[in-house]
Each structure stands twice: as C-alpha cells, then as structure tokens.
Amino acid sequence: MSFEDYFNTIVDNVNKRIEKYIKGNVKELYEASYYLFKAGGKRLRPLILVASSDLLGGERERAYLAGAAVEVLHTFTLIHDDIMDEDTTRRGMPTVHVKWGIPMAILAGDLLHAKAFEILNDSFKGTSNNKISKAFEIFTKAIIIISEGQALDMQFEDRSIVSEEEYLDMITRKTAMLFSASAALGGLIATENEKEVEALAQYGLNLGIAFQIIDDILGLVADEKELGKPVYSDIREGKKTILVIKAIKEAKEDEKEKILKTLGNKNATKDELSAVAEIIKKYSLEYAYTKAEEYMKKAIDSLESISWKNNEAGKALKYLAEFTVKRRK
Amino acid sequence: MSFEDYFNTIVDNVNKRIEKYIKGNVKELYEASYYLFKAGGKRLRPLILVASSDLLGGERERAYLAGAAVEVLHTFTLIHDDIMDEDTTRRGMPTVHVKWGIPMAILAGDLLHAKAFEILNDSFKGTSNNKISKAFEIFTKAIIIISEGQALDMQFEDRSIVSEEEYLDMITRKTAMLFSASAALGGLIATENEKEVEALAQYGLNLGIAFQIIDDILGLVADEKELGKPVYSDIREGKKTILVIKAIKEAKEDEKEKILKTLGNKNATKDELSAVAEIIKKYSLEYAYTKAEEYMKKAIDSLESISWKNNEAGKALKYLAEFTVKRRK
C-alpha cells in the first residue's frame, strides 16, 4: 500500500466518524460547529494517532474514534483562538465568529470540546478501567496545558522581549501537547506498556515543536492563497515567534527599531509588514529551519526506541515527521 | 446533625477540592478561572450530588470530587454565558470578561471545562470500567445538551413568540440537565442499579426545571442587591421566560404592545422596564409559582421511588427541592 492510500483510508474513516458525531437538531449551532471540518485541514493529529496505534497493533475502530476525538478537540481550539486573536480567515474561508458572530462561535467551540470527550469515551469503552482513566488523563492534561500555552502566547504579545526558551515552552504547551497526546493515545489503544506509550508521546511532542516552528516560518514565507490565511498576520498581532526573537537578538540597531515599531501595530501597512518580514527572514530563516529539523530528528529517534509491530505504520510516522518540516502550507 | 451542618460539611469539602485543582503557574489565567468561586454561589449542584451519593451509600471522597467537577463545569458555563449575553454583573461583582477582557474569559472557561473532566476522572478512578464510561457519558451528554439549550435561548431572543412547550424544552436543556447529571452521578458513585440512578436523574431534572422557573421569577421580583445582578436584565435582553410567554398570551392588546415594545430593547429606561415588569407579574406570577411547585413535587415523588440507605440524605434532598422554590435569591 502506498503512503497515499494508507493516509487516505485513515482520513476517510476519521471524517466519517466526525460527520456522524457532529450532528444535532439545533441547526445553526451544528452548522457553525461542523463548518471548519468541511473547509479542509490536513488531519495530521488523527494520522499520527492511528499510525501510532497501528505501530503497536491497536484496533482500527478504536483508533478512528480517538482520531476523530483529537481532530474535534483541535477544531474547538481553532474556533476559540480565532476569536481571541481576532483572525478573520482560516483555511481560505471566513472564520466561524466572522460568519456566525462571537456568541455562536464560543458556543460551537464549547460543543466541540464536549463532543471530543464523548467520542474519546466511545473509543475506549469496554477496555480496562486503567486504560480509560489513563486516556482521559492524557486528554484533559493536554487541554489544560494548551489553554496555558494560549494564555502565554497572548501575554507575550504585550511584551517586547521574549526569550527563545520561553517561546519553546509556550509552543510546547500550545501546539506540541496535542500532537504528543495524539501519539500517546494511539499507543494506549494498543498497549498499557508505559515505556512505549511514553516514547510515542515524545515522538509527538518533538514533531509538534517542529510543526509550530515551520508554521511560524510559513507565516512569513508562504503563498497567501496556499496558506489559506493572510501572511504577516503574526507580525501585525505582535506574535513572538522564534524568527522574531532571533531577529531582535541579531539585527543591527536600526533594523531592530524597525521590527519593534511594526510588531503588534494593527495599522501597519502591507509595505511596512513586508519590509520587516525581509529583515526577520535575513537573520532567522536558516536558523529556524535548522531548529525544526533538529526536533524532527528527535521525533524520529523516539520511534527507533520502540519495537514496531507494523512496518508500514512506522514508515508512515517517519514520513509524517519529515512532511511536517517539508510542507509549504 | 442539622441540615446546616450537613450542607456546610459538603460545601467546605467541595470548596477545598476546587481550590486544589484550580491552581497553576500561569497567573492571570488561573486568577480569572478561580475568581467566581470566591464570589460566592450556593453550590446547589454539589449539594445535590453528594446527598444523592449519600442516599445510596456512596463514598464521600468520590462524591466530593464529583461535586467539585459539576461546580467547576457550571462555572465554566457561567463565564461563557456572561460573554454571550453581555452581562456585566454576577454575584455582585463584575463578570470575568469585564474584569479580564473577552479573550481571557473565553480561555478561563475553556480551562475550567477541561478541569471539570480532570476532576471527574479522578473521582471515578479505580471503579469499574462500566462505571467510568457511564460517568463520562452522563457528563458529556449534559454539556452537549446545555450548549444546545444556550443556542435555543439565544435564538428565542430574536423571536417575538415562543411557546411554553419550547420554553420548557429550552430550560430543561440549559439548566435542568446539569442538576439531573449531578444527581445521577451521585447515584452512580454508590450503585450501578440503573433504576435508582434514573430516579435520581428525574429528581434532578424536575428540581432543575423548578429552579429555572424561580430564577425567571426572581429576575422580576428580587431585591437587586440580594440577587447580585440587575433586575429586569431578562426583559432588556428579550429573554422569553415562562412569565413573558404567559403574559403575552393573556394580556390585553395595549399591554401586550407595551411588552413587545420594551422586550429586547437595550435602550429601555428603568421606568419602562419597571412598568412592563408590573404587567408581566400581574398575569404570570401566580401561574409561574404554581408551575414551579408542580415540578418540585415531581422531584420529591421521584425520591420516594428509591429505597433510602440514609435518611438524613433523603431529607436533605427533599429540603433542597423545597428550598429551590422558596429561595429569594
């Protein structure tokens, strides 16, 4: 089976389960809740989850459900983050709060948050009590840490200087935790061996850090249409990405001044944003790519510490780590 | 032991567990999340949960934790509802989004939503796999239905005519479900007997409907200081309470016109609101009290179908149903 077939089978099955669960008779609420799933998305977290389960011989039906749970959870965070960050475009479409208003968007996120737990519960139903408790522990811990990461991200917008260490801590919480939880939950479906589950958690965590660094890079270099959201929005919002942090540290005084003047300025013109982006790229692009590759390699190293029961799944997980760094959107 | 002692012991123990769990090192986020717990609140849902558990001989430590879980969940819904309804005062204090801004209030609600699941997981840890799955099923179902109820409540604001049946369906979802889930979870801690758990669920459901009818009455007749929020805000927001529905149905043409003109008018003066409140009270107050008492009696009837293992708990549950209707805030 080719990677493409392997991944497509997973995505189709996960999507079917999402569609089945995100249905109800309060029309507007369910439309707003289901909207972003129709708009695309890579389903990276379910792919990691199902392949992690496959790697250790887990049941596919349980893995599809747990995959749907993490994707639904991820989508809830996107809807709420877009309100908080005042983002108006996502996946090439207006964000949920732009289309339905902030109250309905808050509610749609809340519904998906609860639905994610409903689906996870069904995924682990009938397994041992320890496994069910562990699954909910991984899931709840992830959401708590993600919320903390989002709070830090917002706090950083109001600070001019943030260290690389603080940035890494923040993206570990905000982004990498859910990748880590996805891989760990996949492992947990197959085994209660803590070492193997922990190795998968490490794989997901390092892949997640690489993913966010690349996301921050793409916010500066990607094609706007391909990305599905405005480039430079990170600069306008004053996001302290690894590229911004490195550039502020390395740039000459006049360049540094330009960066700090434009960063977080909601009225900055496209030309100003573009000029600042060029400065940042000059000092940071290579550095950020190198960092992302380091984390990607750590992720792959983690996989090597596990005895694979399914070679195809192991190769798929390696491919996903590499894809994370190579992707252009 | 007096009722007061019985209830105080529960409230103190539940509060201690809430305090323990709602702690973390991202200062502003945890301050915003913990704020409403300090502002008071009756802890009615934990009281129902722990007494329901007592009634069938459940373990107190598990019940305290599950009680904390439902109170934390309830508080998440309050924070998000206040944003959606643009309410600025709660429990005599500025609402969370007024104090910390909408983004932080959304995030605090999300954190509490996840924390509620974390606490519930700890409450049922080590029980049977069926029990854990059932507990999460009750909990997730409640949140999903609560979200649907809030969506209906918002939709009703934009409609001039809503039937009493639609109102009862809406408050069953928005308010009564969590009372029902609280009683059922309490029962589940003690037993897997489905009939007993279902009887408790019915007790909570009917108590919850009575609770919301009284809440709607208090929004018209309560002392503003005692209530902790502005009276008449329901009229200003255009809420279709049972009192409004009944009054629109029964009032004379000119009175009906006055009601419809003022209902949902954000610029209505205090005098206009007060005049409309008087009309509504004239036609609806007795009717609404009678309805609330009917549901209160149904709740108490449900209790009688269970064989009590703890007389004090049974009496406490009866008292809580009666208190729900008698309360003045």
UniProtKB/TrEMBL annotation, chains A, B:
Signal peptide: none
GO annotation terms (biological process): isoprenoid biosynthetic process
Cofactor (UniProt): Mg(2+)
InterPro entries: GGPP_synthase, Isoprenoid_synthase_dom_sf, Polyprenyl_synt, Polyprenyl_synt_CS
SUPFAM superfamilies associated with the record: Terpenoid synthases (SSF48576)
PROSITE patterns: POLYPRENYL_SYNTHASE_1 (PS00723), POLYPRENYL_SYNTHASE_2 (PS00444)
Alphabetically ordered keywords of this record: Magnesium, Metal-binding, Transferase
GO MF annotation list: metal ion binding; prenyltransferase activity
Cell wall biogenesis/degradation is among the record's keywords: no
Membership in a protein family: Belongs to the FPP/GGPP synthase family.
Name of the featured protein: Geranylgeranyl diphosphate synthase
This protein's encoding gene: gds
